[in-house]
Write a structure and sequence with these properties.
The protein has 13 helices and 37 strands. With about 775 residues, it is of the alpha+beta class. α2 runs parallel beside α10. Strands 18-6-1-19-22-23 form a six-stranded mixed sheet, sandwiched between helices. Strands 7, 11, 12, 13, 15 and 17 form a six-stranded antiparallel sheet that branches.
Length: about 775
């Protein structure tokens, strides 16, 4: 027995080190009939758990990210000051209805309504469901749930000349000018918006600038008595999805409510008045000769390519926003370098890692000196953001364990590229401006999703940078946020993002038109990444030499199975007796523990036992009816321990779940996590093969020991029940140590069992003990069980 124990330990060390097994080994005589020994160092005796995947979160923080998912930019609304409070019923509303799946970052509000803006010590904070807030919340959720398993970095556009300015929503009139009405139905082809002058006192002396401005407008529209009309008829609004814009200007630059009118020059911003070259160098401007109140008589296009040129344009003050005078076209800003919670994370290391991101994920303020990520870029230099990602990964950021890591970019954008690497502006594909300037692209149909041709240099540069990332093994996932890239609104944008995703090696982009969808898309992407790095924990063999019965046992785990749960497997693969080669293709396996356990009946097909502290002996892990004083029942300590799970205090439900029943899983209306397979994840555990004894009890079956970890994935308290399970297959008993516990979240919390350690002894009869090591975020312990 003692010799057998040391044989196992030394054999694993020798093969793990790549040393050839020699005939001089103590068992050489027993192997005389076997084929000649050959090197088996290529057998993956101990395959290290891979380095965490490295995920660079690249956020396109253009001005439009201040918009809601539908397009309206309402940052700072509801806090334009007491003198402009008349606008709270129109352009600068106080509150919003909280959309499903969104939690306002600072003030959750009441009865489903929350304020757009929260002001503290004179600083305004964005509390709205903006695209940027939604993206930040999704990123924060992903970091909380996955930074123990993956390393993350954060990057956004690099800009200069940052200004915190005021914003004005603008309305475009129909051909004959604005009409004001109390009719709640707009004329065909037009829209209705709230009239900013409705109910405003225009008596002299004026109470404030809004009163003064509305008095002047009432005189201009004298026949319409505008202060008595609730609505204004418009042809388009800057709040529309296709526009997604506001006017940015310093405080006091124009009046709170004003109108420009007259023969706009030129009549349109498109050829022959302006060329694509004019657009590229930023020289497209529309000018109005007349104004009512101090107003914006000359404006240029937004990054959506939009510039108003209707008969009249009204500007209404709204909130705050950011304006930059330039963006770096070929680089990006790294906010947080690649950050790991460590190969073996602890609560402290996880908290430390998350804290590096927290300042940048805070809500946007109206102070240019605060550090949070702001929606500030006037253009969308996506090519520059990807070039920055490429350059960053070229530096080979340190991985979680020093080994090579798989690397990914996750691009979060609410639009298309509008700035090329040479700093030329381009109208986004599918927009009115793109059509006007003749900017086009053609695509192969889904599922190919590939770009055929385009004259859009901003897109061409993006494709080049995606290919560059692919050349160094970096795949790029893309999340399209908001209605501006919704195929129902802009099919060309949909095709463009799909083509970008295909070029990035990820086939198709992830659309996100709700707060829940943003978080869900991020989670799906991260779990895809983790699943792509299914890990082999370790392996063991059943003999010291090669023969026709030589087998390698390999344990694996998957971090995101069909239900996004952690699962494990233990394979038995044959070793070629001549070459020593091992095919780890699952189709070549002699058997799979996962398949065997899935095929067993949970109630009668499994022999599971636990320790009864009252009877001081082992007891079947089964629920006993009646009122016994020992075993597991409602009247025993073991049974009562199983009735402390808050979500389902029925101890019998808990026990049956642990035995493998899926009747009370979430998919079947219960409270327990969904399981793709019965076998839990096998992490930080080496399989331990225990051959038959060389002396006493030589007829005993070989054993294969491996520790695994599993949990209820619910919100209940930790259970102290420990159990053993056995499975006999082809003369081999599979044992796995399992502990029931509660994770801090709905995913695996990395409270894992270490490798089993063999401690044999010889007494009057054959006896063998196996110790399992419990690793709780670095806090160690040992537990044992006798067989």
């Amino acid at each position: 027995m003692k010799t057998q124990r040391y044989t196992v330990i030394l054999r694993r060390a020798a093969i793990g080190a790549g040393v050839t097994l020699l005939a001089g080994w103590p068992f050489a005589g027993a192997l005389a009939a076997a084929p000649p020994l050959v090197p088996v160092s290529q057998v993956p005796m101990t395959v290290q758990i891979p380095a965490h995947p490295q995920i660079l979160l690249a956020v396109g923080n253009s001005q439009s990210m201040d918009g809601t998912l539908s397009g309206a930019i309402l940052t700072g609304a509801g806090d334009v000051g007491a003198t402009y409070s008349a606008l709270y019923n129109s352009s600068s509303p106080l509150n919003f209805t909280v959309p499903t799946g969104f939690t306002p970052p600072l003030n959750a509000g009441t009865a489903g309504v929350a304020p757009y803006t929260v002001t503290t010590s004179g600083v305004q904070y964005d509390n709205s469901p903006s695209r940027l807030n939604v993206a930040k919340a999704g990123i924060a959720s992903i970091l909380t749930n996955y930074i123990a398993d993956a390393d993350f970095s954060l990057m956004d556009y690099q800009t200069s000349g940052l200004n915190s300015w005021m914003t004005w929503v603008y309305q475009m009139s129909p051909a004959g000018g604005f009409q004001f009405t109390n009719t709640a139905t707009p004329p065909a082809g037009d829209e209705l918006v709230p009239n900013p002058c409705y109910g405003v006192s225009i008596s002299f002396p004026y109470a404030n600038n809004v009163s003064k401005d509305c008095a002047a407008l009432n005189s201009f529209y004298l026949a319409q008595n505008i202060t008595a009309q609730q609505y204004m008829v418009v042809s388009a609004s800057s709040d529309d999805t296709s526009v997604n814009d506001v006017l940015y200007a310093p405080s006091g630059f124009i009046d709170p409510v004003c109108v420009v009118y007259g023969a706009v020059h030129p009549a349109t911003p498109f050829p022959p008045n302006y060329s694509l070259g004019n657009y590229e160098n930023g020289s497209v401007l529309e000018t109005y000769p007349s104004e009512v109140n101090a107003c914006a008589t000359q404006t240029g296009p937004t990054n959506a390519g939009y510039v108003p040129y209707s008969a009249q344009v009204m500007y209404e003050q709204r909130g705050f926003g950011y304006y930059t005078f330039s963006e770096t076209p070929n680089s990006a800003q790294t906010l947080v370098s690649m950050t790991s919670a460590g190969q073996t994370p602890t609560p402290s290391s996880v908290a430390t890692a998350i804290a590096k991101f927290t300042p940048y994920l805070a809500p946007e303020t109206n102070s240019s000196s605060t550090t949070e990520m702001k929606a500030q870029a006037t253009q969308s230099p996506i090519a520059g953001l990807l070039a920055g990602s490429y350059n960053y990964f070229r530096t080979n950021p340190t991985s979680s364990n020093g080994c090579a890591a798989s690397r990914y970019v996750v691009l979060v954008t609410d639009g298309l590229p509008t700035l090329d690497l040479s700093n030329h502006a381009w109208p986004p594909l599918g927009s009115t401006a793109a059509a006007g300037y003749g900017v086009t692209a053609s695509f192969n149909p889904s599922p190919l999703n590939t770009l055929i041709a385009t004259n859009d240099q901003a897109l061409t540069d993006v494709m080049t940078e995606l290919a560059a990332l692919q050349s160094i093994g970096v795949n790029t996932y893309i999340i399209g946020v908001g209605a501006g890239v919704d195929p129902a609104v802009n099919m060309t944008a949909y095709q463009t993002l799909n083509a970008m995703a295909a070029a990035g090696g990820t086939n198709a982009y992830f659309p996100a038109n709700s707060p829940a969808a943003v978080t869900a898309d991020l989670q799906i992407i991260i779990t895809k990444i983790l699943a792509a790095t299914q890990s082999t924990a370790s392996a063991a063999v059943n003999s010291t030499g090669l023969n026709t019965n030589s087998v390698v046992y390999q344990s694996q785990f998957t971090t995101s199975d069909a239900f996004q749960d952690w699962t494990g497997n233990l394979y038995a693969f044959p070793i070629n007796p001549t070459t020593g080669a091992v095919s780890t293709n699952p189709a070549s396996a002699l058997w799979s523990a996962q398949t065997q356990l899935d095929g067993q009946r949970w109630d009668t097909g499994r022999l599971i036992a636990t320790w009864d502290p009252v009877a001081n002996q082992g007891t079947p892990f089964q629920w006993n009816p009646g009122t016994p004083t020992s075993g597991i029942a409602a009247t025993t300590q073991l049974g009562r321990d199983l009735e402390t799970f808050t979500a389902d205090p029925n101890g019998q439900d808990v026990l049956q779940f642990l035995r493998g029943s899926n009747l009370q899983e979430v998919r079947n209306g219960g409270q327990f996590r969904n399981r793709t397979h019965k076998l839990g994840d096998i992490v930080s555990s080496d399989p331990l093969y225990i051959g038959a004894p060389s002396s006493n009890n030589q007829s005993a079956s070989p054993n294969l020991q491996v520790s695994l970890s599993d949990d209820l994935r619910g919100r209940g308290r930790r259970h102290a029940a420990r159990l053993q399970r056995r499975h006999r297959h082809r003369g081999l008993r599979l044992h796995s140590d399992r502990r029931v516990r509660e994770p801090p979240s709905a995913r695996e919390s990395l409270l894992q069992c270490g490798s089993p350690v063999l401690c044999e002894r010889i007494s009057a009869g054959f006896r063998c003990s196996v110790l399992g090591q419990q690793l709780a975020h670095g806090a160690g312990g040992h537990r044992g069980s006798g067989w």
